[in-house]
From TrEMBL:
Residues 130-140 have a biased composition (Basic residues). This is non-specific serine/threonine protein kinase. Residues 79-98, 130-153 are annotated as: Disordered. Signal peptide: none annotated. It comes from Punica granatum (Pomegranate). Pfam families: Pkinase_C. One of its GO terms (molecular function) is ATP binding. It catalyses: L-seryl-[protein] + ATP = O-phospho-L-seryl-[protein] + ADP + H(+); L-threonyl-[protein] + ATP = O-phospho-L-threonyl-[protein] + ADP + H(+). One of its GO terms (cellular component) is cytoplasm.
Amino acid sequence: IVNWRTHLKFPEEAKLSPEAKDLISKLLCNVNQRLGANGASEIKVHPWFNGIQWDQLYQMEAAFIPEVKDELDTQNFEKFDESENNAQSSSKSGPWRKMLSSKDINFVGYTYKNFEIVNDYQVPGMAELKKKKSQTKRPSIKSLFEGDSETTD
């Protein structure tokens, strides 16, 4: 959560126990203060997990075992009215949504990274590594097909 100190509020209607609120707060915080930053044992001893026998977890019977017919069986998932969801999402997302084509879908989740900045950052030993790499000779593609030993930089 961005600005979690400002935005993390627990509504009264949620009816969360103090232990649950504490667990959530300790998971949604700065990484160095986060519950579990020093190992899973921190999480296991949190009061919200009192009564859980961690060493016997794999031997315990699950509270719910779903019946699944095959790998495409979705009967255990909540059902939604697709036409209602499409109408809501298109009205909320605005006109740009209609402009997306199938080629745009290929870039969903793509993140641009500026490697020039990374390359300009001075890392100890990087100059020597770049120099060594530039001195390495590779065989040319032509030599692979013609059999001579010509090399390129």
